[in-house]
Amino acid sequence: xxxxxxxxxxxxxxxxxxxxxxxxxxxxxxxxxxxxxxxxxxxxxxxxxxxxxxxxxxxxxxxxxxxxxxxxxxxxxxxxxxxxxxxxxxxxxxxxxxxxxxxxxxxxxxxxxxxxxxxxxxxxxxxxxxxxxxxxxxxxxxxxxxxxxxxxxxxxxxxxxxxxxxxxxxxxxxxxxxxxxxxxxxxxxxxxxxxxxxxxxxxxxxxxxxxxxxxxxxxxxxxxxxxxxxxxxxxxxxxxxxxxxxxxxxxxxxxxxxxxxxxxxxxxxxxxxxxxxxxxxxxxxxxxxxxxxxxxxxxxxxxxxxxxxxxxxxxxxx
Length: 318
Fold this sequence. Notes:
Protein name: ATP-dependent (S)-NAD(P)H-hydrate dehydratase
Oligomer: single chain
Cofactor: Mg(2+)
Catalytic activity: (6S)-NADHX + ATP = ADP + phosphate + NADH + H(+); (6S)-NADPHX + ATP = ADP + phosphate + NADPH + H(+)
GO molecular function: ATP binding; ATP-dependent NAD(P)H-hydrate dehydratase activity
Order of helices and strands: HEHEHEHEHEHEHHEEEHHHH
Strand content: 5-15%
Family: Belongs to the NnrD/CARKD family.
Structural class: alpha/beta
């Protein structure tokens, strides 16, 4: 388990944040796709998509069912909404769009209808073919639990289970329940069983492992468990996942990034930011805090965590 200082770990995340320059073009900072949203659940994909934008992505696409599209469109004009997920031609049509995307977030508000899950299997297969990062949360984890082969062995995948989802997946993969009071070892074992993809076990502290390294994200969140916070985490993680892979491609020189790799760096960054946003929102709203209250906190928290050097000096990005 890591004994690195918080400052070193934040510097690792800062190293993957792309510079903002006047000659950048639209989409260069991230084009994120969110696969989810059905008649019952329209808020989850909205939270994931808007969190991706507020974290720094340029474009956010939502691939949802036809009866969810109009509702999701009404939440924000900034989201690009595709009513494709329940169509027979869903995989082919979504695949055309995916060739333009940098990362994919699978699961928020997806539901568990069999035809939807079959389509999502095809979408994940296409993401693997394109070698883009995939973050899997919520009902996407249910799909992985019953069909782990869809993602096992894909090193650019990040799974974000809560304790119930983690226990279910651990049982499916290892044939037993996790050991009590051994969260770091449990997460490491599950990652290894799934071919060393990255697992983020959400909790009071988030435990992150790729089967080799284990990192505990110890940022303090809030005691309010309002629904939607996990969707914000997954959307933000979709952006950071692309940034991490792109930083490695660009040859960014950071010792912690070399040690932990881009997926753990992304997971740590998104976890730390989301928990800090939750704490900040709770300080203002208390028991009445909802997931929507985290959205305005993303900008100031991002600035505080990732736009300054370890000495508190603002990073010159222009």
